[in-house]
Amino acid sequence: MTSDELIARQRKGYSLEQDFYCSEEIFQQDIKRVISQKWLLVDHVSRIPEKGDYFLFEIANESIIIIRQNENTINGFFNVCRHRGSLICLQPEGNKKLLSCPYHAWTYGLDGALRQPPLMPADFDKSKFGLQKCHIKVCYGLIFVCLSNDSPPEFDKEYEEFAEVLDFHGLKDAKIAVKRDYPTAANWKLVVENFIECYHCAAAHPEYTHVHPKDQLLAMGAGPGSGPPDALKKYQATWDAWKEKAETLGHPTPEVIRDEASIDMAQLARLPINDRNFEAETKDGKRACNILMGQFNECDHGETAIQFNPIGYILASNDVAMMVRFTPRDATNTDVQFTWLVDGNAKETIDYDPDNVAWLWDVTTKQDKIIIENNFSGILSSRYRPGPYSTQEARVSTFIKWYLKELDNKPAL
Amino acid sequence: MTSDELIARQRKGYSLEQDFYCSEEIFQQDIKRVISQKWLLVDHVSRIPEKGDYFLFEIANESIIIIRQNENTINGFFNVCRHRGSLICLQPEGNKKLLSCPYHAWTYGLDGALRQPPLMPADFDKSKFGLQKCHIKVCYGLIFVCLSNDSPPEFDKEYEEFAEVLDFHGLKDAKIAVKRDYPTAANWKLVVENFIECYHCAAAHPEYTHVHPKDQLLAMGAGPGSGPPDALKKYQATWDAWKEKAETLGHPTPEVIRDEASIDMAQLARLPINDRNFEAETKDGKRACNILMGQFNECDHGETAIQFNPIGYILASNDVAMMVRFTPRDATNTDVQFTWLVDGNAKETIDYDPDNVAWLWDVTTKQDKIIIENNFSGILSSRYRPGPYSTQEARVSTFIKWYLKELDNKPAL
Amino acid sequence: MTSDELIARQRKGYSLEQDFYCSEEIFQQDIKRVISQKWLLVDHVSRIPEKGDYFLFEIANESIIIIRQNENTINGFFNVCRHRGSLICLQPEGNKKLLSCPYHAWTYGLDGALRQPPLMPADFDKSKFGLQKCHIKVCYGLIFVCLSNDSPPEFDKEYEEFAEVLDFHGLKDAKIAVKRDYPTAANWKLVVENFIECYHCAAAHPEYTHVHPKDQLLAMGAGPGSGPPDALKKYQATWDAWKEKAETLGHPTPEVIRDEASIDMAQLARLPINDRNFEAETKDGKRACNILMGQFNECDHGETAIQFNPIGYILASNDVAMMVRFTPRDATNTDVQFTWLVDGNAKETIDYDPDNVAWLWDVTTKQDKIIIENNFSGILSSRYRPGPYSTQEARVSTFIKWYLKELDNKPAL
Ligand code: FES
Ligand code: FES
Ligand code: FES
Q1: What is the mean pLDDT of residues C144-163?
Q2: Which of B81, B87, B124 to mutate to test the pocket of ligand 2 (most atoms within 8 A of CB)?
Q3: Lower CB count within 10 Å: N or C terminus of chain B?
Q4: Which chain A residues contact residue C200 at CB under 8 A?
Q5: What is the least distance, in Å, from the CA of C142 to any CA of chain A?
Q6: All structural domains of chain C
Q7: Which residues, given as ranges, of chain A have pLDDT below 70?
Q8: pLDDT band at C2 (very low <50, low <70, confident <90, very high)
Q9: Which residue of C has its CA nearest to B227?
Q10: SS3 per residue for C18-46
Q11: pLDDT value, residue A410
């Protein structure tokens, strides 16, 4: 079946047809038509503070060098030599004065320009053989890339409503406290679906349901828009009361929910952690880091949920901000990476314990990895049939519609 | 080449063309057209004696839950949740009061019926979302399943001539003494071919040729019909004399040999183990279990060979019955499982030693695993050419004809 | 894209399009149209000195038995039984009185003829079921095979200019001192490209550039024809002076350089190791073996470089000759094997130390393995673009033209 036929056949309000989760061909289209057309959140600037610091971002068959050219500029290059195609950077991260290919030593500046290699034919024009750039956008301390061969989608306008909150959280002055990887043997869409519904929380996540109250989990356990309307209605008073208190402290409480018609399904909300006065998503509700981030002078006991797109998120309390990255590797494997940020002045051991910072989402993501892999295994059966979504999976249903719409785009390749 | 072209090209009396053994596409057709249209012997009822006891039967991409609903009923369900497709049972065996999905806790009764899940849309009809049943048949203590989407083939009539012997062996009162797995890196058809000829016994199986006499191995070493007609003619007097003795004891000695035109190539015969008065297939010929099975009051020194179809067998002496299961996993891997049964009252250590029970076929199957894997490796060469069968491979030749006929079936999918 | 379209699209003087390095389909064509049409250097006769001694040569899906029938004859057979296709020899090397199949014991003489197997139908003609021969050629102690189903290419005439030098080196009286394998995870063409240019030597091979002088590496570091014309011109006087000295000693100094129009890109030259009077490619320039090979009575401080074809080479100084074999396994894996030969009378420990014999190319090949694998990884990117060759990669450029020409051959299969 072609992907067009599959798209036509897909039943509304139901999970995807099997091939969307398994087929290598559809995966190639996912990468070209969907993933490559988005701004992908890849990491925090504090990972590469010095000139020449770099790390590799690996996605599908691509390896991208993210390297600091100088104080103000970070570049993204495809990790492919213009001579005979060797990888240029071999280590996942490091520092380079110049980008020199390990094969024949073709050497590129930190701006990607090729220096004249020896012994080239007379008609060789080095200006035509600079490293291939990857679109890059750095703001609020966050690094985004876009793999597209063409113009990337508009960034500033798409996320202008996010600016105030991102700024308030002081992300640009943050540093990385912990980074953990959870490679998951499943199609990337199953990882996304899992993350944007809390229908499974009760059965699967005792720690998460310990931290968050039942009525909130039901109403918006995976962000606003994720729960049934009547549950939100019931919870609204609690939420409004909290917002009012936060605003009294001068903290912003904007709300954004974009649906399947949008480019990114972007989303933003601030809400209380729970009704037990928790300051952070920790076992005992105490801060995980002594120093609050950004402009939080007094704790508002809230958390911020941001979705840039279905594979890039930030979840932040007043003391810790967490970046979530789902990176497709192939049709059946996804790299899940969580990065926890704290204030740039915070000192490990003294101000925070990394295991405590990471606790809730580390245990929750390990649970999800198993759940998602078993979901994928079941889907391989000839008897898998798309099933209907509950009212607590509204955001998943939106995601499916968004994905099918995006897949239907046929960008010039 | 299409499978139709391959079928047309196949030379009679010769082994199969290369693609039949290697191609992933042909394997998919094997599963749909051949394997899924058969009653497959999967295990013995004593594996799941209590209500809620279950085990998983895994074949190709399918995982089937075989679970006891009550004293009288055993059900087979595809291990795929009707919600978003997760595996439901994760362990190879266990006990479940209810079948509850580990993802969002949709819960099914032991009859497969879905209990109302929370938060479903108003028009959700839970009666439409029960677990998908797998055809199942339990008789004489044996559990068979059929994967077909349509009606399964007729069972009772197909095997009615087998009833007396299966009953006489008392399989329904048996218990599992040993179960061993021999995963084999080869196409399932090579595993079958190996099992239904004794042309290789002399070169490969010293233990097997120690237990069985030469003239018998030649005449019917892989069951009746497996040897050359003149060898059978020569052996017939010995066989007839044994049958007469067995009948004097009141033991049945029926004979069934179905050819390539049949649904299953089913086969049944009883014959003496050897002419040295062996009671069992053991090193010294003594019983492997003190207690004889079923209605065997006195030992008749015979064995029973039953082929339900090319991937399911029972070989039984008076004290031990052995179930043989060849389960295709993919084009190049087959799960070989042997299960040895003894009388339900027999006690391990006191009445039988599991290693002694399993001895002959354990050592023989380990030898066959290596042989079959080397056969498969050789077939991968561009110079593999189908070769001619000897007169001692008559049953293999029949199998090839049967397989090509079955593959030519094009059931509605 | 078909391989015809890819060939048409290929830009001259640039590295190959991505699919040539990655596609499994193109690899199958490489094997059929290119590799199978060549005489492949596989090993030295001293590996199988006694009647019945054999080794396996494994390439792509093929396993070839190279076995000594008697003092004068070595045979090559496809390692596939004519009965049901089993591998016949299971060990990488050994000794066999007869070639007996481990499955049903069909037995072949060392000439490949089948002895009458038991129990075959009356019309079975054993003369039609001998082992399938692989073309084989043994000369100067070297064993070559050709996998073609048809007539192999002409050998004697193709290599007649090589005879004097091969004879002079006394290869037929040599013995194997060391053999080492460097399995490389890359397409075979990347392994070849790496071996026939010295553009990467400066950056990658400190030991190699220690042994050889800069001007020589530039002029002909990967054999004559590998460097830019002006560098050769500059080096020519040094080379000519050495040749004159060698000729005074009565040593041959022929030169062969065949281009892309030839069958094999064959090549032959003799040149000085360096200008520091090195006798061998060792750290200190002293001989690696006390005994000089063949007709070298006095050391001429030179080395001989022979290319039979792009996947088979000999590099020899006066004391040691090294065979180089690049064997394609699949589209993304190549077996690299180096075999070092010394005079047949040399004694290990007393006359040579194997580690010292192997030193330079062992360390260099380990470096190349990493380089080549990183080259291959980079080429997998969607942004890999064929790049231009330098003037020091002239021989690579020739190889690409030769390869595309050869791939365009469509031999009857
Ligand atoms: S491949 Fe990078 S310099 Fe040659
Ligand atoms: S997948 Fe089973 S309950 Fe959701
Ligand atoms: S496969 Fe070799 S003898 Fe049968």
Answers
A1: 96
A2: B81
A3: C
A4: 103-105
A5: 33
A6: 40-146 (2.102.10.10), 155-408 (3.90.380.10)
A7: 410-413
A8: confident
A9: C119
A10: HHHHHCHHHHHHHHHHHHHHCCEEEEEHH
A11: 64
Q: Is the CB of B106 under 6 A from ligand 2?
A: yes
Q: What is the pLDDT of residues C197-253, one digit of tens each?
A: 999 999 999 999 999 999 999 999 998 888 999 999 999 999 999 999 999 999 999
Give the model confidence (pLDDT) of A325-351 as tens digits: 999 999 999 999 999 999 999 999 999
Q: pLDDT tens across B329-382, in order? A: 999 999 999 999 999 999 999 999 999 999 999 999 999 999 999 999 999 999
Average pLDDT, chain C: 96
Taking the CB of residue B162, how many other CB atoms lie within 10 A of it? 21
The Cα B369–Cα C24 span in angstroms is: 29
- In chain B, whose CA is at the least distance from the CA of A387? B83
- Here the tokens at position C315 are 């590099």
Tell me the two tokens of residue C79: 């390692």
Joined tokens for residue B357: 């029970």
Residue of B nearest to A218 (CA): B119
Count of beta carbons in the 10 Å neighbourhood of residue C182: 18
Matching residue, tokens 């004696």: B49
Q: Which chains have 3 or more CB–CB distances shorter than 8 Å to chain B?
A: A, C
pTM: 0.96
Say yes or no: CB of residue B117 within 6 Å of ligand 2: no
DSSP, collapsed to helix, strand or coil, labels residue A221 as strand
Count of C-beta atoms within a 10 Å radius of residue B373:
17
CB contact under 8 A, B378 and C79: yes
Contacts of A121 in chain C (CB under 8 A): 13, 388, 390-391
Whether the Cβ atoms of residue B288 and residue B356 lie closer than 8 Å to each other: yes
Chain A residues in contact with C383 (beta carbon < 8 A): 62, 78, 80, 132
Is the confidence at residue C413, as pLDDT, over 80? no
Half-sphere CA count of C340, side-chain side, radius 13 A: 26
Tally Cβ neighbours within 10 Å of residue B238: 17
Q: Rounded to 10 degrees, what is the CA torsion of A339, A340, A342, A345? A: -50
- Take atom 1 of ligand 2 and give the residue whose Cα is closest: B84
User: Contact A390/B104, CB-based, under 8 Å?
Assistant: yes
Eight-state DSSP code of residue A34: I
**DSSP string computed for A315-382:** EE-SS-EEEEEEEEEETTEEEEEEEEEEETT--BTTTB-HHHHHHHHHHHHHHHHHHHHHHHHHHTST
Ligand at minimal distance from the CA of A378 is 2
Residue B79 CA neighbour count, 13 Å, CB half = 27
Tokens (6 digits) for A260? 């399947």
Residues 6+ apart with CB under 8 A from A358: A178, A180, A338, A340
ipTM score assigned to the predicted complex: 0.95
Ligand 3 contact via C83 beta carbon (within 6 Å): yes
pLDDT at C1 over 80: no
Query: Closest Cα to residue A221, out of A188, A184, A269?
Result: A269
- How much helix, strand and coil, in percent to the nearest 5, is found in chain A? 30, 25, 45
Atom of ligand 1 nearest to the CA of A86: 1
State the smallest CA–CA distance between residue C100 and chain B in angstroms: 10
Q: How far apart are CA C192 and CA A407, in angstroms?
A: 41
Does ligand 2 come within 6 angstroms of the Cβ of B86?
yes
> Is any ligand 3 atom within 6 A of the Cβ of residue C86?
yes
In angstroms, what separates the C-alpha of A385 from chain B's closest C-alpha?
7
Phi, psi for residue A309 in degrees, rounded to 5:
-165, 180
Q: Residue window 221-240, chain B: list those with CB within 8 Å of chain C.
A: 228
B64-107 residue pLDDT tens: 999 999 999 999 999 999 999 999 999 999 999 999 999 999 99
CA distance C233 to C238: 10
